[in-house]
Amino acid sequence: MTGPQTTEARLVHPADPGPGSWHRDAVIYQIYPRSWADADGDGVGDLPGITARLEHLVELGVDAVWLSPFYPSPQADAGYDISDHRDVDPLFGSLADADALLARAHELGLKVIVDLVPNHTSDEHPWFAAALASPPGSPERARYVFRDGRGHGGELPPTNWSSAFGGAAWTRVVEADGRPGQWYLHVFDRRQPDLNWDHPEVRADFEDVLRFWLDRGVDGFRVDVASGLVKDPAMPDWHGPLRVQGVDADGRPHPARDQEGVHEIYRAWRRLLEEHPGDRVLVAEAWVADLDRVARYVRPDEMHQAFNFAYLLTPWRAADLRQTVAESLRANDAVGAPTTWVLSNHDVVRHASRLGTPARGGRMTGIGADDPQPDGPAGLRRARAATLLMLALPGAAYLYQGEELGLPEHTTLPDEARQDPTFVRTGGTEKGRDGARVPIPWEAGGPSYGFSASGRSWLPQPREWARYAVDAQRGVPGSTYELYRAALRLRRGRHLGRGDLRWLDAPEDVVALGNGDLVVLANTGEQPVALPGGAEVLLASDDLPGDGTLPPDTTAWLVPA
Ligand code: GLC
Fold first, then answer.
1. 532: which residues sit within 8 A by CB, 6+ positions away?
2. How close is the Cα of 347 to the center of ligand 1, in Å?
3. What are phi and psi of 299, to 5 degrees?
4. pLDDT in tens, 392-426
5. Beta strand residue intervals within 409-560, DSSP E
6. The pTM is what?
7. Which of 260, 311, 370, 537 has its CA at 20 to 30 Å from residue 434's CA atom?
8. CA 558 to ligand 1 centroid distance, Å
9. pLDDT-based confidence at 2, cuts 50/70/90?
10. Does the CB atom of residue 342 touch ligand 1 within 6 A?
């Protein structure tokens, strides 16, 4: 291979010119509060635990934190079932603890994004309790999606819709007279009734929730199920793909995903954010397949960012990666929004395991002890290479707690330990997401690896996790933790998140790109490839052999001679 060449014609993304908002090139670290650090010893992480360990994030070199929900909740879906949007669940602490966390994060120069879950509430939300206690047609029921059933006596659900967690998306209630009555919609668990976003009270209440947290000083919101709030009023049956926006065989769009009506909600929220001082942001969690449809959520008067799940789902193969990267930048550039990049979160198999499967990534619904096991070393090697590629790309990047340690998925969790409602609702055919949610190892020798002084942990941690602990990796050359630190330092120093992107000539299996004067080569193939002669290697995802080649499943950041 000769040295990578660049021509203007291959520029796929110009540098981000403006000073603009902090979020455009931020690295945002997702904390899953249940599993980060437990201060009170009950085996579930909490806000004081997070506050006490925020320095970790400064040392790592990220810009912001996104916190998964910590609000009052019966925890039927690990806190994504909220019974009060304006408080903190005692499991996680108190409002004063949330204030202390925000203050400490800001003192350390970290922004804080909180989760907002507007599609549904918990079944223990006072509104839902009132709806159940009130008759069909009552104002209390109008805040949710209640319908009469089909068939004789209404014994069939109003539509054929499936829950994203398995089973039907409707549950029938028992009316005050003791007879089976109406059905309510729950696109997720039966304990997560969908709200009716046509109802002015629902809209007003969520605007008030936004104000509540903006006034407490949060820097933004990650909006859960952002594509799902509005349903097709005709409520047609659906025979297309279940989890993401798509069209069915007749070309009809999903009746509960990516409906046009969602956008006016986000326009109103954007106006509301702009009435508040500071630089606050809205981030869309929209599992929408088409990148141009995702970009509609980040038009100038809507949200600021959307998770790039297309990138997360792209297998570790150069041609696929090039295509997704180019498409992502094109679609977002068209609306003037920063592109985001993400490889892991609390809903997917960790990328250190996902990339170690024969498919080298893609969509997965959990891994169990009876499933084929990922190739651990190959997965970790590819995960490190994939991360180094991701962190060189212009735009914002999301990291999920533990990936900086190279943590794999827990793939042998006993079924009795599983808590994800997906596992139960699919009768165990989908193992679910618990394997990505296991508490973090901080100390190789501590009880529950330093997660909790009591040694408790709400999900069991695998025995071999001592070697992933933060204190086993800190200061150790070549450790995944030090690789992330070095990459984040270089990324920040070279403003890679604001940079441009040019494709460079390279063999088919290699992603070769330029960003400023940095050259990035990611070898996804089976053979070593030659590095450009005389180039200085700033960082590589694994040791280089020293013979001028880049081994398979390795990424290098270089400055050409
Ligand atoms: C989002 C969350 C997921 C949750 C679901 C329902 O996809 O990320 O964890 O189960 O919404 O709230």
1. 1, 2, 3, 4, 519, 558, 560, 561
2. 7
3. -65, 160
4. 999 999 999 999 999 999 999 999 999 999 999 99
5. 501-503, 510-515, 518-523, 529-530, 536-540, 549-550, 554-559
6. 0.97
7. 311
8. 39
9. very low
10. no
